[in-house]
Amino acid sequence: MLDIQLPPILLGRVVVECRGIKLASFLNLITKANIRVYDIYWVDEHRLKMTVLLSEFYELVKLMKQNQVRMRILHKSGLPFYMEKAKKRKWFYVGAILFLFSLYGLTSFIWNVDIEGNKKIPASQIQNILKQEGVFVGQWKRRLPDTVLLQENLLRKMDDTSWVGVRTEGTRMIITIVEKKVPEPNDDQAKIREPVHLIAKKNALIYEMKVDRGNPKVKVNDMVKKGQILVSGIYGDGEQNNTNQIAGAKASILGEVWYESEIEIPLVQKKKVYSGYREKGRFPYVFRFQLKNPFFSPPYKQYEQIQQIDRMRVGNWELPFGIIEEQYLEMQWVRSQLSEEEGIKLGLEQAKLELLADLGEGSQIVAEKILHHRQENGKVYVKVHFDVVENITEKQPIFQGE
């Protein structure tokens, strides 16, 4: 038969201090009684400390009484003592366990369905379709349909969509809708209905003209000023009103416009370089307090932290607790020294990007020239001239009597 001995931490152990005159003979009696003691430490001639198992502690007490040895308990440890403490605080532990189970249970359901990107399709219509597919507030996560299948079904049931995205973040499901675009003018000129004149919205050199309707007043390579009529919406000689025909103007006119940009570039560039390694951590929070592991430390020396809060919701009600997911992206700052030539090149590219961003779609830089540059205080200052081809037309209503 195997003699299996459990570790002392499971059996329970007691550290005691013994006082008496004949402690050496007392230790001999302990050995004869087969009482297991260890970590014996002599404090002085009449005092010693020792550790005894809880199962043999009461035998040791009897032996002490028989030999007039006094005892003082210094420390108690082990599973039996932990269990005794737990009995006294059982409702605390019961509450903690119930809280953890409740937290786990709440995170197993979808408490919020967010729809983003829809402008023309009513949210109520999308919610009805989602409900038909088994996606609604209070749905168990394990019963959610397959993401790819859900995307295909939503795209099939909504004719006005060109793409549908589905993602789940904790207890939140996010539906991203990309609606089909209907071509329409972007600017305020769309509010002006024909018939109209087409006028120049800025000084320019006419680069290209395609007139579909109207009476052209300029031609390619003409210089025009802001507000000048490019294509008139009126046919006729203009002397007698009864000979004029108002048809409205429609044309595509590109003009060459000149711009100057000034930009400064530091010669010492500092940028982040990511290693590609990342770690994630999930921590609960209650109210404004994050319940983070006190022994947790970021896994990298240099990192960028991305934090995402998953709030618990019941319908439209936001609960005061949830989960915070933190991502740690390993990175390091790298400094590089640019030459003056490299600084000028970088400044030119940056000036082009800024100019095109201001002008919008359809604009094209056809020529560029550096007018001036200088290096001063660790920076390069660049002044650039740009020739840009862009749409220069603007609508102007035809007023009565023209």
The CATH architecture of the largest domain is: 2-Layer Sandwich
Sheet-strand content, in percent, reads: over 45%
Q: For the largest beta sheet, what order do the strands appear in spatially?
A: 11-9-15-21-20
And the CATH topology of the largest domain? Alpha-Beta Plaits
CATH superfamily of the largest domain: ACT domain
| SS-based class | alpha+beta
The number of distinct β-strands equals: 22
Protein name: Sporulation protein YqfD
Organism: Polycladospora coralii
Pfam families: YqfD
Transmembrane segments: 91-111
Task: Describe the protein in words.
This protein has helices at residues 8-11, 23-32, 54-66, 79-88, 90-106, 123-132, 147-157, 340-359; strands spanning 13-19, 37-44, 47-53, 70-77, 112-116, 161-169, 172-179, 196-200, 204-213, 215-216, 223-224, 229-232, 234-235, 245-246, 250-266, 268-286, 289-290, 303-314, 317-337, 364-376, 379-391, 393-397. By secondary structure, the chain is of the alpha+beta class. It has five domains: 8-83, Alpha-Beta Plaits (2-Layer Sandwich); 112-179, membrane protein fhac (Ubiquitin-like (UB roll), Roll), CATH 3.10.20; 189-252 and 393-397, no CATH class; 261-268 and 337-390; 275-331, no CATH class. It has a five-stranded antiparallel sheet. Strands 2-3-1-4 form a four-stranded antiparallel sheet. Strands 10-12-8-22 form a four-stranded antiparallel sheet, with no helix packed on it.
